[in-house]
């Protein structure tokens, strides 16, 4: 079976979105499927019209989004739909698999109708909620409601719908979508990418003052600095943590919209010397920073976005044998079993965050057990080599449903009364 994946952006750009896409396509290839990707106009990396990245083939949509709001998005949909049709005419896919946002889904729905192909639509997050979480939108605004309505329209047109977690599925069911039409494909990791972790870089550790008998634990976060990630809560927790663990240090790796505000907050902290910002680092260097960290902290704030959506980073951390402390929002509760595979604490609460980190630090005798339980959980439930198989019955059902609809339409036309 040939599957054309319709995407917002892809490799060689690096993001949680592109890493999930890479994992899906690689795992599907291993299962014997032929796969390609096509990106819309928001993929802003320079490159050829057809590009290979990490052994995967991606087609690009020419042009850049332009025009006033509303018109711009409609033009994007049209441009991507036309490009899907052109690629399909040459490559002949059996199915279109569109991934959120809804602009990709609507373009794929338009193209699927013209090509007579089945459509599977995968929702990784509700992008109206993501816009609120990023500080780029307001819940209940006209744009918010229009985005939600567009997504509902795509869902109605798709043969099948896939979500990454139970929270998103429950929200769709509450909107009236038949749960039988919704499959789950949870976030996962490619264990082929996670061998034995490298030893800590002694020179890097020394440059940060992480040496000595009383050093540690090292608390870490690696990712994008968005307001909903709650890194301000983590910074506020550090004085309370150091009161119990004087050698504790915090390393924040990455950047994003909240970067400047977080640096200002850290500089004003009474334990500013214990908080280190690295800025963005090359993807190839991320493992060096992971190797320095004992506990990965994910203090996401409570919101619709964080309650409904499961993140990828905690799974990657557990796969690498790291301890995980996370706020008890819905997205984290689906991934972490408190006291077994990690630690959960009340969101938006620096004292609760500090207490959880201090409790983990104090239980060094259980670190090996907790790390092993977390890694085993990820391998059992979030390994892409296994989870990619979830798509196979979804694809088969979508193809069969499309054939039934085509046959019904044909019979209807045949039996229609003459002039």
What does this 3D model show about the protein?
The protein has 17 helices and 14 strands. By secondary structure, it is an alpha/beta fold. It has an eight-stranded mixed β-sheet with strand order 3-4-2-1-5-6-7-8, sandwiched between helices. It has a six-stranded parallel β-sheet with strand order 11-10-9-12-13-14, with helices on both faces. A hairpin with a 2-residue loop joins strand 3 and strand 4. Helix 4 packs antiparallel against helix 5 and helix 8 (231-244) packs across helix 14 (350-362). The two termini are 41 Å apart. The mean pLDDT is 93.
Topology:
Elements: E1 2-7, H1 16-30, E2 34-39, E3 50-53, E4 56-60, H2 71-91, E5 95-99, H3 102-115, E6 119-123, H4 127-133, H5 142-157, E7 160-163, H6 166-174, E8 182-184, H7 202-207, E9 218-224, H8 231-244, E10 249-255, H9 259-267, E11 275-279, H10 286-290, E12 295-298, H11 304-308, H12 313-319, E13 323-327, H13 330-333, E14 343-345, H14 350-362, H15 367-381, H16 384-387, H17 391-414
Helix pairs in contact: 2-3, 3-5, 4-5, 8-14
Q: Indicate the CATH class of the largest domain.
A: Alpha Beta
Low-confidence stretches: none
Mean pLDDT over the residues: 93
Q: Please name the CATH architecture of the largest domain.
A: 3-Layer(aba) Sandwich
Summary tags:
eight-stranded mixed sheet, TIGR04063 family PEP-CTERM/XrtA system glycosyltransferase, Rossmann fold, Glyco_trans_4-like_N, 419 residues, 16% strand
């Amino acid at each position: 079976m040939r599957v054309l994946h319709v995407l917002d952006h892809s490799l060689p750009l690096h993001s949680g979105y592109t890493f999930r896409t890479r994992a899906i396509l690689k795992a599907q290839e291993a299962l014997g499927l032929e796969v390609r990707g096509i990106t819309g106009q928001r993929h802003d990396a320079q490159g050829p019209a057809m590009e290979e990245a990490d052994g995967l083939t991606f087609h690009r949509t020419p042009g850049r989004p332009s025009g006033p709001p509303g018109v711009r998005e409609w033009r994007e949909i049209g441009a991507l739909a036309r490009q899907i049709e052109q690629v399909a005419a040459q490559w002949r896919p059996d199915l279109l698999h569109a991934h959120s946002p809804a602009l990709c889904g609507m373009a794929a729905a338009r193209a699927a109708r013209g090509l007579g192909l089945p459509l599977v639509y995968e929702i990784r997050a509700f992008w109206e909620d993501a816009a609120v979480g990023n500080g780029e939108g307001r819940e209940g605004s006209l744009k918010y409601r229009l985005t939600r309505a567009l997504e509902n329209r795509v869902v109605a047109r798709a043969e099948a719908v896939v979500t990454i977690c139970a929270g998103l599925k429950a929200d769709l069911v509450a909107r009236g979508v038949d749960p039988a039409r919704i499959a789950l494909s949870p976030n996962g990791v490619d264990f082929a990418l996670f061998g034995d972790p490298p030893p800590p870089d002694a020179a890097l550790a020394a440059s940060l003052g992480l040496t000595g008998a009383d050093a540690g634990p090292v608390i870490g976060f690696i990712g994008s600095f968005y307001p909903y990630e709650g890194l301000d809560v983590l910074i506020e927790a550090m004085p309370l943590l150091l009161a119990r663990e004087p050698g504790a240090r915090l390393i924040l790796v990455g950047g994003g919209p909240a970067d400047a505000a977080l640096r200002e907050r850290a500089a004003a902290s009474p334990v500013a010397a214990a908080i280190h910002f690295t800025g963005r680092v090359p993807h190839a260097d991320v493992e060096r920073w992971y190797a320095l960290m004992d506990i990965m902290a994910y203090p996401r704030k409570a919101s619709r976005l964080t309650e409904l959506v499961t993140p990828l980073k905690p799974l990657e951390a557990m796969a690498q044998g790291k301890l995980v402390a996370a706020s008890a929002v819905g997205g984290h509760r689906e991934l972490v079993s408190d006291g077994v595979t990690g630690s959960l604490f009340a969101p938006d609460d620096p004292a609760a965050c500090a207490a959880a980190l201090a409790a983990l630090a104090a239980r060094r005798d259980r670190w090996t057990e907790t790390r092993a339980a977390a890694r085993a959980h990820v391998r059992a439930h979030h390994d892409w080599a296994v989870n990619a198989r979830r798509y196979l019955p979804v694809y088969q059902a979508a193809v069969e449903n499309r054939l039934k609809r085509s046959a019904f339409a044909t019979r209807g036309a045949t039996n229609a009364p003459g002039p």
